[in-house]
Amino acid sequence: MGKIAIVIGATGVVGREIVDQLAVHDAFEKIISISRRCVHYDNPKIFNQVVDFENLEKEEEYFKGDFFFSALGTTRKQAGSIEAQRKVDIDYQVKAAQLALKNGVDQYLLVSSSGANINSKSSYLKMKGELEEKIKTLSFKRIVFVRPSLLLGKRSDFRIAEKVGELILPLICQLPGLRKYRPITGKEVAAAMIRISQRSTKQRVGIYSLDELFI
């Protein structure tokens, strides 16, 4: 019997790829794409569910499955403030994870970030580190954190800093010692997450850095 995967952040650079790749994977029979707005899919294995992240406790019935993939995230510019960004990057994430755990999901996989650290001076990396620490306290059978660097892929919003990075970083990262910071595509991250999810392991918490994500 095929497995059920739940995906939040399904409209982002990595999330879109996760949904698409899960839909053609033989191990999965159903993919629940959870989003804030309606998304149309042609594949009958994919079910889109629009939810109100402010009232996730009312949406508990949609968090039932075997695997939970989280690619949810925003930027301070999109959110409007650090406080609003924290709500998406931490509060919504933790609440969704808690609902999944309550409903029997035993495998949790998160798109985090290279440099994630609760003690970081960067507010973004500090939030990613804080989220990881909160997730570790939840009793999932298995937890996976993937930590990519700059993500390459089609975005719904234009980010000048990331666009410049896409052009310059691949060149800079050819220099000695900088290869570990090279960009990676959303497609590669998604493929790595799904590949990792199918591995048999006794390790409860696994952290995968950039080099481990490339195929």
**Structure annotation, total helices:** 6
Strand content: 15-25%
CATH class: Alpha Beta
Q: Please give the CATH architecture.
A: 3-Layer(aba) Sandwich
Across the major sheet, the strand order is 3-2-1-4-5-6-9
Which ranges are low-confidence, i.e. pLDDT below 50, for 5 or more consecutive residues? 155-169
How big is the Rg? Answer: 17 Å
Helix content: 25-40%
3D architecture notes:
- The chain has 215 residues and is an alpha/beta fold.
- The protein has one domain (3-151, 184-212): Rossmann fold.
- Helices cover 35% and strands 19% of the residues.
- It has six helices and nine strands; from the N terminus they run βαβββααβαββαβαβ.
- Helix 3 packs parallel to helix 4.
- The longest helix is centred in the middle third of the chain and has 21 residues, at 82-102.
Overview features:
215 residues; alpha/beta; Rossmann fold; seven-stranded parallel beta sheet; two-stranded parallel ribbon; 35% helix
Ordered list of secondary-structure elements with their pairings:
Elements: E1 3-8, H1 13-23, E2 28-35, E3 46-50, E4 67-70, H2 76-79, H3 82-102, E5 107-111, H4 123-136, E6 142-146, E7 151-152, H5 160-172, E8 184-185, H6 186-197, E9 205-208
